[in-house]
Specification:
The complex is a heterodimer of chains A (188) and B (65). Chain A has helices at residues 8-31, 34-50, 61-79, 105-115, 119-129, 135-142, 146-164, 176-187. Chain A is mainly alpha-helical and 188 residues long. In chain A, helix 1 (8-31) packs across helix 3. The longest helix of chain A has 24 residues, at 8-31. With 65 residues, chain B is mainly α. Classes of the chains: A mainly alpha (188), B mainly alpha (65).
Chain lengths: 188, 65
């Protein structure tokens, strides 16, 4: 039998290219730094390419690449000896000095607020709120229960609200009021 | 955003604002051009694979002949 001029790897490359802008936006949102994010994207491309046989054609290339990237992110953080922050992290600690690279003050503020979230909450709200994944997909990608992802997203949302001081009425304090809102959010 | 929307729960209004800002931020990053290094890298990986395939193709053709 005559061998097909294998165009499968080419379409693999094409599919990767199509996901790259979103993948890179995820990396930048996650790390908060373009240089770190681009290193992460590069590592992800190399890893994905090396194990492209394990990708089942027709399945979700985007979810596959995002999963490789987030696993790489956490494994690099562990190697650097930095612990992944727990979900009960308070609204403090992180550096909040950022270059004004978005040209718009409110986006810089948003970036600064995003950086203050614990990693798992930041990841959850980005995946579900911006990258376009469902809660189910995000749970699968992060290797945790659906309820865990849902609670991370709602906690992230509340923390961002508090940090950005957006509310329909008075500001929420970080403790009492947002806890009450959180309870309502989880109950609903 | 409108100042007062009495029928809407405050936390819902706030939640919508956060969601909108998140998407705005994310979209602004997505609109950035993909760095050349990634396009080059993919070309190189692809070319290396292609060379590998050509080599093994020649070898198997040689075995047959």
């Amino acid at each position: 039998m005559k061998a097909e001029p294998t165009n499968e790897p080419r379409s693999f490359k094409r599919e990767m290219l199509a996901v790259l802008p979103n993948l890179r936006a995820f990396a930048i949102s996650l790390t908060g730094r373009h240089d770190k994010a681009d290193d992460l994207v590069q590592d992800t491309i190399m890893k994905a390419w090396a194990k492209q046989e394990s990708f089942e054609p027709g399945t979700n290339m985007k979810a596959w690449l995002f999963t490789i990237l987030r696993n790489e992110y956490y494994s690099q953080m562990r190697k650097r000896g930095r612990e992944v922050q727990d979900t009960d992290g308070v609204l403090s600690g992180r550096l909040s000095v950022h270059p004004a690279q978005y040209g718009r003050l409110d986006l810089d503020d948003f970036r600064a607020a995003l950086d203050q979230l614990p990693d798992d909450q930041r990841e959850a709200i980005i995946l579900v709120g911006a990258s376009g994944f469902s809660y189910e997909e995000a749970a699968q990608m992060c290797g945790c229960a659906l309820g865990t992802i849902k609670s991370r997203v709602s906690r992230a949302r509340l923390q961002l609200q508090a940090l950005l001081e957006v509310s329909g009425e008075a500001d929420y304090g970080p403790d009492g009021e947002s806890a009450a809102v959180l309870n309502r959010a989880i109950a609903s | 955003m409108q100042g007062n929307t009495p029928k809407t729960h405050p936390e819902k209004v706030a939640g919508n604002t956060v969601s909108r800002k998140l998407r705005e931020y994310y979209d602004s990053v997505m609109e950035e051009a993909i760095p050349e290094r990634f396009l080059d890298l993919l070309e190189q990986l692809d070319a290396a694979d292609q060379a590998q395939r050509d080599r093994s193709h020649r070898e198997s053709a040689g075995n047959e002949g």
